Amino acid sequence: MTERKAILLIMDGLSDRPVSDLGDKTPLEYAQTPAMDAAAARGVCGLMDPIAPGCVAGSDTAHLALLGLNPYEIYSGRGPFEAAGIDMEVQPGDVAFRVNFSTVDDDLRVVDRRAGRITEGTHELAQALNGLEIDGVKCYFKESVAHRAALVLRGEGLGANVSDVDPHEVGAKIWEAKGADEASQRTAEVVNKFVRKSHEILREHPVNKKRQAEGKLPANIALPRGAGLAPHIGQSFDERFGLKSACIVETGLIRGIGVYLKMDIIDVEGATGGLDSDVMATAKAVVQALDDHNFVLCNIKGPDVAGHDQDAMAKVQMIERIDQAVRYITDNVPSDTYLVLTADHSTPIEVGDHSGDPVPLVIDGPGVRVDEVTQFNERAVTAGGLLRVRGTDLMLMLTNLMGVQHKFGA
Amino acid sequence: MTERKAILLIMDGLSDRPVSDLGDKTPLEYAQTPAMDAAAARGVCGLMDPIAPGCVAGSDTAHLALLGLNPYEIYSGRGPFEAAGIDMEVQPGDVAFRVNFSTVDDDLRVVDRRAGRITEGTHELAQALNGLEIDGVKCYFKESVAHRAALVLRGEGLGANVSDVDPHEVGAKIWEAKGADEASQRTAEVVNKFVRKSHEILREHPVNKKRQAEGKLPANIALPRGAGLAPHIGQSFDERFGLKSACIVETGLIRGIGVYLKMDIIDVEGATGGLDSDVMATAKAVVQALDDHNFVLCNIKGPDVAGHDQDAMAKVQMIERIDQAVRYITDNVPSDTYLVLTADHSTPIEVGDHSGDPVPLVIDGPGVRVDEVTQFNERAVTAGGLLRVRGTDLMLMLTNLMGVQHKFGA
C-alpha cells in the first residue's frame, strides 16, 4: 500500500443546536456547503463526542482528545499550553499560568484588567520579571499579544491546584492564590510573592513612567490565572503515531498543544483567529504542508467566535467561507489524501459558549465504507456508517486507514 | 426461564473494505449468504469494535476481548497462548516464546529459518532440550507442527519485555535477546544461554546426523521470538460467566487461548485452518458439542487467509462455504439457541493484513429486539438495533440474554 496522507480540519465550535431564526436549522445545516457535502457523500460519516457524551469540552481538552491523549489524565489547566504557544520552554512538572498585565491602585484594587489595552513595551516589562527566583523556584515570564503573557514556574514538587490571582473584576482587590494541597500551597506562596514582586518592579519601570507621562494606564502588575501542571506525555505525537505532522492553527492555546506535542508549527499570515481570518491562506498552507508532512492538523477558529457572539448569520457566513477553503484543499491535494472534517466542540448560538452536544464527523478517503449520507451537518451524519465515536478514537481510526498503525497482538 | 445455549461463531478476518473488483462491495456484501442474512433478519445487528475503534487487533488480543478479558491489561505477547495451544502447561508468571527449529552455520548465521521444513524427528529434538535448567530457571520445550515449537521459562521474577532471537532473515546472524527492564534483562540472559545450549545439543543430535547424511539441513538451533508473560486471569472462563463451554477452533494460537481459559477443547478432523478446511465437519462438531455444553466458541480461519492472500474471490467463496455451515447449524440446534455471528477483526483485501475497521455483529435468539436489518454485512448492520459496541461488551450482552448473569447491584 502506498503511503497515504491525511488532513484533520477542525472547525472550532462549528456544531450547534437548531436556531429558530434559521428555520430551526443549525448554522451548518443552513449554510451552503457544497464542498463539505461532497466530502460527506464520498466518505463515511458519524457523530463524535470530543471527550464524552454531554461533556462540555474546552478547545484545549478537546484537541488533546482528538490528538489521541486522554485529557482526564493529563490536563489540569491551560497555562502550560498558553506558555508553549508563545514558544516558552515548558518541561513536564512545570506549573504554568496565563497572565494579564493589569493596572492596580495602591490598595491592589484592579483599575483595568488589561492595563489600558497596552500594545507596546510589554517585551521590556516581561524581561524585567523573567528569571526571578523565589523560594528556590525559577520564574520564567514572557509577553504574548497585547496585555497577555505567561508565567512558567520550575522547581521541585510544585502543584497546580492553585487558584487565580486575577479577580476578573474591576474595582475588586486582587486575590491571594491558594493551594488545594501541600505542593500547591507552596506553589501558591511563590505565586503570591511573584505578584507582589511584579508590582514592585513594574510600577517603577521606565515603560510605565512613560505611559503615565502620556496619560496612559500603567501595566503595573502581573496577574496570573489558569494554573496547569505540564504533563508527562511520553512520546511525541509523531513518535506515537508514526507520522510526520504539521500544525496550522489560529490560536495560541492550540498552537501550544502543537508545540507541546512537538508537531511542526506553521504560522500563516492573515490567519487571525477572527471572523476576518484569511481562510484561503490557511488552505494554501495546508496543501503546501502536505509536500513534506503526512499529517496536517488545521484549526479554523471563526465558527467559535460567531458562536460566542451569538451571531447566527455570522456563523453561517464563516462556514460558507470555510467551505471554499475545503474546495480549494480537495482540488489541490492528491486524490488518495484522507480529509477529516469535524469540530472540537459545539458553540451553540443559543448558549453563546461551548456545549457538550456531539459534533459531526466525516472521513473521506480510500477504503472507507462509503455510506448514504450526502450532507455534512449535525443531523445528516447520524445516518452514517461510523455511528457514534469518541474524540480519542479518531487518531486510531485515521492511522488504521493510513496503514501506519502497528498491530496490537498477532 | 429455561436454560438457553449459545454459539459464538467468529469468522476470522471476515470483514473488509469496499473492493473495486467486486463493484465496490465488500466480499461479505458480494457473497451469497442466505443463512447469515436470515440470522440478521431474525436477530439484532450492529457494528463491533473488537478492541477499540480503529485499533488494529491481532487474532489473539481480539479473541481475549470477545471472551470478556481486557487485552490491554493481560496481553504482552503471543508466546503463552502458542505454548498452551500445544498443550504445554503454562502458569501465571511464566514467560513463553514461539520457537523455530532453524539451521545456522558455525558463525550462527541463518541458513534456513525452517530447517529445511523439517517434519520428522522434532519430538526427539525437543526432548533433548526440554527440562534444561539455566540460572535457576526451568526451560520447558515442546515441538508443534513442522519446524515450530514453543519454550516456556518458569522461575522467580521473570520479565517478558524480551526481544526476538530469530532475525527473521536468511544470512543474518542470530540476534542477542535484550530485556527492556531488569526482570526482562535477566530473562534475556537465560534465553541467550538457552539458544547457545540448543545449538550445542542439537548439532550433535542423532536426528540431525541422520538428516545431514541424507543431504537435509540440520535443525541445529532453536530460535525464540514473541515473548509473552502468562497472565493471571483469576477465574476460568466458565467460572467467570457461569457457563460450560467448548472451544472448536482451527489455529494453535486461538486453541491456546481456549486452553488458557480452561474451556473444553474439541479438535475436529479436517479443520485445517486453510481455504480447504472442512467447515461442515466443524459445524457438525458445534452442534454435537451443544449436547453437553451451553456455550460453544467456534473460529473458522479461512476468511483471514484469503484476506492475507488479497484474493477477493477466494474470500467470497470461503464465506459462501461458511454460510452453508451456518445453515447446517441453525437447522440442527434447538430454536432457542443463541447464534452470534461476527469476526475478530477485518482483514481487507486492499490491505492484505489485519485492519482496525469495525466488524459486523448479529445476535439471533429469543428475546432480542429484532430490528429492520435483513442482510449480514459491514454496512447493512449499521442500521441495526445494537448500534456500535465493543468486543469486551459481547459476553455481558450474551450472558444477559442467556439468563445466566448475576445482577450487579440490588
CATH fold description of the largest domain in chain A: Alkaline Phosphatase, subunit A
User: What number of structural domains do the residues of chain A give?
Assistant: 2
Q: Are there runs of chain A of 5+ residues with pLDDT below 50, and where? A: none
**How far apart are the termini of chain A?**
20 Å
Quick tags:
homodimer, 410 residues, alpha/beta, Alkaline Phosphatase, subunit A, 6-stranded antiparallel sheet, 14 helices, globular
Describe the protein.
2 copies of one chain form a homodimer. In chain A, the strands form 2 sheets. Chain A has an 8-stranded mixed sheet, with helices on both faces. In chain A, strands 3, 4, 5, 6, 7 and 8 form a 6-stranded antiparallel sheet that branches. Helices cover 32% and strands 19% of the residues of chain A. The first copy, chain A, folds into 2 domains: 238 residues, Alkaline Phosphatase, subunit A, CATH 3.40.720; 149 residues, no CATH class. Chain A has 410 residues and is α/β, with parallel strands linked by helices. The model of chain A has no long low-confidence stretch (mean pLDDT 97). Chain A contains 14 helices and 14 strands.
